[in-house]
Amino acid sequence: METMIKKSNILVVGDDRKLNEGIMLALKNNVYTFSQCRTIADARKIMQNEDISLILLDVNLPDGDGIEFVREIRSYSQVPILLVTVNMEPEIVTGLEAGANDYITKPFSLMVLRARVAVWLRGKTISAEHLKIDHFDFDFGKMEFRRNGQLVELRRTEQRLLKILCENKGATVKRSALIDRIWQGDRANVDEQSLTVAVKRLREKLEIDPANPDYIKTVYGIGYTWVVNP
Question: CA 219, CA 89: separation in Å to the nearest integer?
Fold first, then answer.
């Protein structure tokens, strides 16, 4: 029986079309797919509609500052971000402090690029589909969710909410970002209360004491986080 391999989707953001094509050609294999754009505005649209595994982000873009875009992404996602930059130490330091995971300087070795991308994607696909956290076992591929070995029935919105929070565990995800990703384009028919209700129901199904949750915490005025417990 052939084993299905879930591919990692790499988003390449940069206004140098030739460089972008070279990057994708260098990384091309049977487990990577690619999305490509030249502006921050287009990158936002792609991230709203596609599941991105890693971002290769040029610091200098036509419609904004790549480092500011890193800060924006970090407000709702912990997707690995590799900066593509010239060898300017202050820019590199600022980018890493903003939340980028790594960087590669132009001109760069394609072998080094392949190695760094592989490191950041290693094991990510598996962990995104099947997560074991403390006494929880979440299999998003099979849509089976267990607490202390017992099956828990989750609605579709609750499944989406749970996956986003777990993928970004330890980070705060803004309410607006959660609404956009959970209801995927149907925001006109959704309000803030819909998210509040979804969070309440998920807590009731997973938390021992939903009124004082150990995992799904509210970050007041911002959004929610799945707490990483020591």
Answer: 34
Residue 128, pLDDT score = 55
Q: In a 3-state reduction of DSSP, which class is residue 198?
A: helix
Q: Phi, psi at residue 111, to the nearest 5°?
A: -65, -40
Place of tokens 């500011």: 68
Asked whether 206 and 189 are in contact (CB, 8 A), the reply is no
Preceding peptide of 90 cis, ω within 30°: no
Amino acid at site 170: G
Residue 147 CB contacts under 8 Å (≥ 6 apart), including other chains = 135, 136, 205, 206
CA atoms within 13 A on the CB side of 119: 11
pLDDT digits over 75-126, tens only?
888 888 999 887 677 888 888 888 888 888 887 778 888 888 888 887 554 4
What are 60's two structure tokens? 């200098």
Output the average pLDDT for the chain: 84
pTM of the predicted structure, to 2 decimals: 0.56
Q: How do strand 150-151 and strand 173-174 relate by DSSP bridges? A: unpaired
